[in-house]
Write a structure and sequence with these properties.
With 342 residues, this protein is an all-alpha fold. It has 16 helices and 2 strands.
Length: 342
């Protein structure tokens, strides 16, 4: 085990210990903020995994919606006793999302580049309109109400207490990150990097790029569906308004701003952006300006994402003089692309 791996393991244990102990140090409101951050971590990490294959997706929020409604409808409307359990709904919500991801991925993953992102954007809107229009099943714009919370023997229902929900989403986030990180470090993960660098060459040497991307797409759909199912039982209510395109774009912003090429990037981006959004709730109408400013800052000065900020600050005395020239060169490059020469 290398020195870097040991540092990562020790740091992870310390962070998890702080998260588990945090309800003793902060109010229930800030525990709720931590839960929102961890939900975004799971969704952003799914965005990153598919990004490593060379595909830019905006559809994770749609699978979260499918998982949320799948779990909510099973628990509230199923006549079979075993399906009325929220814990069962958590699994089946993820499974339903993964099963739907198979045909959706089979259709959309054959489309390259930017067109794939546009198709996933259309998929988000399609799912939202189906949830609105199929009111006999989904409740329409009103959504599904009175969704039961999780419960444990000897503890009872979680109710409105934020602490057990925090512990549960920590477990979900750890499993999500561990599975996706492990996949990235296998031969399948190396195939992802090869496809992203040169798709044609990867196919030429015998890689079934479509199969690998479809597997990745289904895995992302499964964990996004699990997060959506968790949200349904956490809020005790689910509606189509929670799965709009703006929330889908927020997932992308968190991953890119944090540093999409780094395993820590989506985690840093989710905690920084969601945490600041909640902390600046009184200025919520300026959220677009806020996120746009962060993206501009990252694009011009931190191309590796916010996760590289400590390294940049350490080296800043030596690089400070070059920052204006670097920003000017990038601005001239962008201008040359979009403004025709006179």
């Amino acid at each position: 085990m290398g020195r870097r791996t040991k540092i990562i393991i020790i740091a992870s244990i310390i962070v998890l210990a702080l998260l588990f102990y945090s309800p003793q140090l902060i109010s229930q409101y800030w525990v709720m903020v931590l839960i929102s951050c961890l939900i975004m971590v799971c969704l952003s990490y799914g965005f990153r995994l598919l990004f490593l294959t060379g595909r830019l997706t905006i559809g994770a929020i749609a699978f979260a919606g499918i998982g949320a409604y799948g779990s909510a409808l099973l628990v509230t409307k199923a006549d079979i006793a075993v399906l009325n359990n929220p814990w069962t709904g958590l699994f089946f919500g993820a499974l339903i999302a993964a099963l739907i991801a198979i045909p959706i991925g089979y259709i959309t993953l054959k489309v390259p580049g930017l067109m794939f992102a546009i198709l996933t954007m259309a998929f988000v809107e399609l799912v939202r309109y189906v949830l609105i229009m199929w009111d006999s099943l989904t409740g329409g714009p009103a959504g599904v109400l009175d969704i039961p919370s999780f419960s444990l023997p000897g503890y009872g229902g979680f109710g409105i207490n934020q602490t057990p929900y925090l512990y549960l989403i920590i477990i979900i986030a750890v499993v999500t990150i561990a599975v996706m990180y492990r996949i990235e470090r296998t031969r399948v993960g190396l195939s992802f990097y090869a496809m992203a660098l040169n798709d044609s060459l990867a196919r030429h040497v015998g890689m079934d790029t479509f199969k690998f991307r479809l597997i990745c797409f289904v895995i992302v759909g499964f964990f996004a569906g699990m997060v959506g199912a968790f949200e349904a039982h956490y809020w005790h209510y689910v509606s189509p308004q929670a799965f709009i395109l703006l929330n889908a774009l927020l997932i992308k912003v968190c991953a890119v701003a944090g540093g999409v090429l780094s395993p820590l990037g989506p985690i840093v981006g989710a905690f920084v952006l969601v945490g600041l959004t909640e902390g600046l709730r009184m200025f919520r109408e300026y959220a677009g300006i806020f996120f746009g400013g962060i993206l501009l800052f990252v694009v011009f000065l931190l191309p590796g994402g916010l996760v590289t900020l400590p390294r940049v600050l350490i080296n800043m005395p030596g690089n400070a003089r070059s920052w204006p020239d670097t920003a000017r060169r990038k601005w001239l490059d962008i201008r040359a692309r979009f403004v025709p020469a006179s």
